[in-house]
């Protein structure tokens, strides 16, 4: 039974091989017009590629056409190249394309609406998307806004199509647009990455809404007299370039200035905004101008940590010299000079970040007072050291006294004292000896008492101090100066702090 099955398998394989070779011969002779769907050409009897078949594709079924039609073309006007996403493709209805094309037949975009009539009223609204990069050194800031303008153009009325027509940026040159520009603009080299930053809508009654995105670098007039507790008002001014108030009027719309909720400035607090007009009278006419104002209040925390607290610490550090003995001169000199140089460097760093103006700021007053206290502590040490090291009385030499006339002054003063003691007016004549003797002398040059006629007793001269006593006297005076400075310097600086912060914090709006 097993042999029979094996024989059947061999016979079936032989029959299949014969039929396969016979079918290939018939196909080559053209007996069959259509061959098999697929064919393995790598397994032939002799290893060579067979000749190509006449038709190797299966014929299509009878219910399927031999060719398929291409995509159906959508009818489209030649001048229709704007965004018409709401266009109805049915030919028997009015489409925005047909309406817009019909309006452009008698429309001239070079002429303003209501030409030679009343001026066009442009209602403007400003949406502030971002505001930042406020630089004090260059006095400018960067702002990103959406400028929305609307006006009436009766030539664009289309009551037959009761819907809004939206034009893309490629078609804006076919409609009249106001030629506005920003007066305080410094640079406008910021281009949107997508390039789609313009939009125009035409309503059935002829009202036009035009919106455009601007990112600009604008100048800001700043005043730093209250720095760093100052308040700056940065403006944005827009004006028509060629149309005077006889042809075009710029008017603020309802809710004219809108601020985005995520505006955050690191150095300033945005306190609010205002809007006003800034019409300009020029030689060629009067041009209407709109102005938006942004109130920025500077944050004080950064300057407390970087300027005020370090300067207070340096000033207090300079007072430590009052507790160092005058004998230790190197320590006091090093500490005094170090604090002076540090205060000067801190003052210079604060001035570098600001423009070169000539008026005095609040920060300048603070720094100059701190430098004065530090410098005063150094001068105090110099005076103390000079007095501490003296070993004889301080006085002018005799030649200097004679040169400046101090001897005559002292003699005249002594003469007045003698006359006042006698109850008489001092005489203006007489010799020097008579003045010194009180006006009367004897032959032996002994002063006489005029009331009793007896010679006066000579006064004892005070005992002269020794060099050690003089040195101790001056050392005591030097230490007394240090004691007084320990009280005077901190007390005066405390009163200055109270006056400074009371005045400037009362004007600080944050």
User: End-to-end distance, in Å?
Assistant: 109 Å
Q: What is the structural class?
A: alpha+beta
The helical percent reads 25-40%
Shape label: elongated
Strand content: 15-25%
Low-pLDDT stretches: 31-91, 428-444
Number of strands: 13
Which series of helices and strands comes N to C? HHEEEEEEEEEEEEEHHHHHHH
The number of helical runs is 9
Rg over CA atoms, rounded to whole Å, is: 53 Å
Largest sheet: 7 strands, mixed
Mean pLDDT rating? 77
Task: Walk me through the structure.
With 510 residues, the chain is α+β, with helices and mostly antiparallel strands. Helices cover 34% and strands 20% of the residues. The protein is built from 9 helices and 13 strands. The chain has helices at residues 2-28, 96-104, 301-318, 329-352, 362-388, 398-404, 406-422, 432-436, 467-507, and strands at 120-135, 140-152, 165-167, 180-182, 185-187, 198-202, 207-219, 231-240, 248-259, 268-277, 280-282, 285-287, 289-298. Strands 1, 2, 3, 5, 6, 7 and 9 form a 7-stranded mixed beta sheet that branches. Strands 4-8-13-10 form a 4-stranded antiparallel beta sheet, with no helix packed on it. Strand 1 (120-135) and strand 2 (140-152) form a beta hairpin. Mean pLDDT is 77; it is low at 31-91 and 428-444.
Walk me through the topology.
Blueprint: H1 2-28, H2 96-104, E1 120-135, E2 140-152, E3 165-167, E4 180-182, E5 185-187, E6 198-202, E7 207-219, E8 231-240, E9 248-259, E10 268-277, E11 280-282, E12 285-287, E13 289-298, H3 301-318, H4 329-352, H5 362-388, H6 398-404, H7 406-422, H8 432-436, H9 467-507
Parallel strand pairs: 1-9
Antiparallel strand pairs: 1-2, 2-7, 3-6, 4-8, 5-7, 6-7, 8-13, 10-13, 11-12
């Amino acid at each position: 039974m097993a042999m029979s099955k094996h024989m059947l398998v061999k016979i079936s394989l032989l029959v299949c091989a014969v039929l396969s070779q016979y079918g290939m011969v018939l196909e080559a002779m053209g007996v069959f017009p259509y061959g098999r769907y697929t064919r393995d050409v790598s397994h032939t009897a002799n290893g060579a590629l067979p000749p190509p078949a006449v038709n190797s594709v299966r014929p299509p079924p009878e219910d399927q056409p031999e060719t398929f039609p291409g995509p159906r073309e959508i009818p489209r006007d030649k001048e229709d190249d704007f965004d018409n996403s709401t266009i109805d493709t049915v030919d028997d209805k009015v489409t925005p394309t047909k309406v817009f094309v019909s309006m452009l037949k008698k429309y001239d975009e070079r002429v303003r609406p209501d030409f030679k009539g009343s001026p066009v009223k442009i209602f403007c609204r400003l949406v502030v998307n971002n505001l930042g990069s406020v630089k004090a050194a260059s006095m400018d800031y960067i702002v990103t806004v959406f400028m929305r303008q609307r006006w009436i153009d009766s030539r664009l009325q289309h009551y037959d199509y009761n819907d809004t027509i939206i034009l893309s940026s490629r078609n804006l040159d076919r409609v009249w647009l106001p030629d506005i520009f920003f007066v305080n603009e410094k640079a406008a080299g910021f281009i949107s990455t997508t390039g789609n930053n313009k939009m125009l809508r035409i309503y059935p009654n002829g009202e036009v809404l035009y919106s455009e995105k601007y990112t600009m670098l604008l100048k800001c007039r700043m005043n730093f007299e209250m720095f760093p507790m100052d308040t700056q008002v940065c403006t944005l001014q827009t004006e028509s370039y060629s149309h005077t108030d006889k042809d075009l009027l710029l008017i603020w719309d309802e809710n004219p200035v809108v601020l985005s909720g995520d505006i955050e400035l690191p150095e300033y607090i945005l306190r609010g905004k205002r809007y006003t007009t800034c019409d300009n009278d020029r030689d060629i006419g009067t041009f209407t101008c709109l102005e938006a104002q942004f109130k920025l209040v500077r944050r004080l925390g950064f300057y407390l940590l970087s300027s005020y607290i370090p300067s207070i610490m340096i000033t207090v550090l300079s007072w430590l010299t009052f507790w160092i003995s005058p004998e230790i001169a190197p320590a006091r000199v090093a500490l005094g000079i170090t604090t002076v140089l540090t205060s000067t460097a801190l003052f210079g760093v604060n001035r570098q970040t600001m423009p070169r103006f000539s008026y005095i700021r609040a920060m300048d007053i603070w720094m100059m007072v701190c430098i004065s206290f530090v410098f005063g502590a150094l001068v105090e040490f110099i005076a103390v050291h000079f007095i501490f090291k003296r070993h004889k009385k301080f006085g002018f030499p005799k030649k200097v006294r004679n040169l400046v006339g101090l001897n005559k002054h002292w003699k005249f003063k002594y003469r007045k004292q003698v006359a006042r003691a006698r109850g008489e007016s001092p005489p203006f004549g007489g010799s020097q000896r008579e003045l010194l003797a009180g006006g009367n002398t004897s032959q032996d040059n002994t002063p006489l008492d005029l009331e009793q006629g007896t010679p006066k007793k000579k006064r004892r001269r005070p005992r002269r101090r020794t060099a050690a006593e003089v040195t101790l006297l001056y050392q005591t005076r030097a230490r007394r100066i240090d004691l007084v400075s320990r009280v005077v310097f901190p007390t005066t600086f405390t009163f200055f702090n109270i006056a400074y912060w009371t005045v400037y914090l009362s004007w600080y709006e944050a």
